[in-house]
Design a protein that fits this description.
478 residues, alpha/beta, Rossmann fold, 2 domains, five-stranded parallel sheet, 21 helices, globular
């Protein structure tokens, strides 16, 4: 049983038992524990120390765990990348079956099997032919829209024009057909994408930005051939149905799903973890060469030339010139507000999964790579520094956060003072007095002057926020 599993009938305990059942019965064979907590020992398996295995107190398979957590969420969405036959589709099928008590036939009927000839009528809705014949337009909504478990299989086989039909559906839970808005029912959405080949298309960045979490499914570990054979024998004998059949007390009710969502919402962030995340996002999103004014120094403003050697080579914050080096030069694009939401939500879900009321640094570190890697393009300089980043993009995202954590330690006192100023500003604005307004404005000006001591682009959003607070106080002082 997984560490921390509850013996009661609470939804968290049920979900953890379900995770164990899916693995132990071989429904989803996932021995790779690429999410680990409490590393107890690292063992080198070669002589130069470049290949090691970590032994941990707690470990999970990312694809299976995030399938479970996304399955619990009311409007979560997730994508699996990887080769054919790696279990990308079966993971959400089994989780959907157990969490929402849907038969495999119902799940298959609601699945959109993507290919170049798919149409809006086949995926989303269609007009009733009988009503059209009498001059009326009645929209018949497809099963995928109403099902609590939605799977879009091999989504990168849709050409860009067809994929555009799904943008709002993935992002906001609705699409349109004719003059009608078609809303999807509550429940998670899962997408699969095979590795690039002649039969599919690259997924555009605006589409990937709409997806909250992403994992890469791997080929089956050959050491588990015996378990695969056992599962094959059970399928030949019809035994797979027995593995899918669980007792009523193991099934989830809508009340339990809502309780789980409520418990996840109640998980909180401490100031330390939140400011670590703010610092990482600031270093990822801001760029000295993107604009002249401080407000324009963001990668969203770098529309004509992206960060990399050409733009960054003569910049102070480029590696080798800045003390400690900011991570700003390592990614071409920044991290969007959609990712902010995913980072907050999945960090809370991870803490909840582990039985905690607050998100700690381990939870944030575990979630961050999977919320961001599929949206970030490393620069040429990043590839030069570590050639593994060409393929291991979640490892790249982990590297960025680890590097940002180190620079945060050099900036912590400024974040502490910034937090104090914001809290004081809230109090002063609620009950403004001329003397207190003037004192706070003076404190803001001094803090802005001290930002020159921060050797990181993370000071830009602090400066912009403090300037706005100063201006708001100026209005109270008029």
């Amino acid at each position: 049983m997984s560490p921390g599993a509850s013996t009661s009938s609470d939804p968290r305990g049920k979900l953890r038992k379900l995770y164990d059942r899916i693995q132990d019965t071989g429904l989803f064979i996932a021995p790779e524990q690429d999410i680990k907590f409490g590393i107890k020992r690292s063992i080198n398996i070669n002589n130069n120390g470049t290949e090691k295995i970590d032994l941990a107190k707690e470990g999970y398979n990312s694809s299976l765990l995030f399938t479970m957590l996304t399955g619990i969420l009311k409007h979560g969405n997730m994508i699996y990348f990887g080769p054919p036959g790696a279990g990308k589709t079966t993971a959400p099928e089994f989780v959907g079956h157990f969490l929402y008590d849907r038969s495999m036939e119902d799940i298959h009927r609601a699945t959109i099997f993507c290919h170049p000839e798919q149409t809006q009528e086949l995926m989303v809705a269609r007009y009733s032919l009988a009503d059209l014949m009498i001059g009326e337009e009645k929209v018949l909504v497809r099963e995928c829209m109403t099902s609590p478990i939605k799977i879009l299989d091999e989504i990168n086989r849709l050409p860009p024009g067809k994929l555009s039909i799904l943008y709002q559906l993935v992002d906001r839970g609705f699409t349109d057909y004719g003059d009608e808005v078609v809303r999807a029912g509550d429940g998670p959405m899962f997408m699969t994408a095979n590795a690039a080949d002649e039969g599919n298309y690259p997924l555009p960045k605006p589409f990937l930005d709409r997806i909250g979490i992403a994992t890469v499914a791997t080929y089956l570990n050959p050491c588990y051939l015996g378990l695969l054979e056992q599962r094959g024998n059970e399928q030949l004998n019809g035994g797979i149905e027995k593995l899918l059949d669980i007792s009523p007390d193991q099934k989830f009710s809508m009340k339990e799903l809502e309780l789980a969502r409520h418990q996840i919402r109640d998980v909180s962030f401490s100031g330390n973890e939140l400011y670590h995340l703010i610092h990482f996002l600031a270093e990822s999103n801001y760029c000295f060469k993107a604009g002249i004014s401080l407000e324009h120094k963001t990668k969203s403003n770098a529309q004509f030339k992206k960060p990399g050697k050409g733009l960054c080579s003569d910049c102070h914050y480029f590696s080798g010139t800045s003390k400690g080096a900011s991570i700003c030069y390592e990614t071409q694009e920044g991290i969007s507000p959609r990712s902010y939401k995913s980072l907050l939500l999945y960090s809370k879900a991870m803490a909840w999964w582990r039985g905690k009321k607050k998100v700690d640094m381990e939870d944030l570190e575990a979630v961050l790579p999977y919320c961001t890697w599929h949206k970030l393009t490393p620069t040429d300089k990043a590839f030069e520094e570590n050639s593994f980043f060409v393929n291991d993009r979640s490892g790249f995202a982990s590297h960025l956060f680890e590097k940002s954590k180190q620079s945060y330690l050099r900036c912590k006192e400024f974040y502490d003072l910034y937090d104090t100023i914001l809290q004081t500003a809230g109090q002063v604005l609620a009950s403004p007095k001329k003397e207190s307004v003037a004192l706070l404005q003076d404190s803001i000006a001094k803090h802005l002057e001290n930002l020159k001591k921060i050797d990181s682009v993370s000071k830009y959003p602090i400066a912009v926020t403090l300037a706005r607070a100063y201006n708001m106080l100026e209005g109270k002082n008029a």
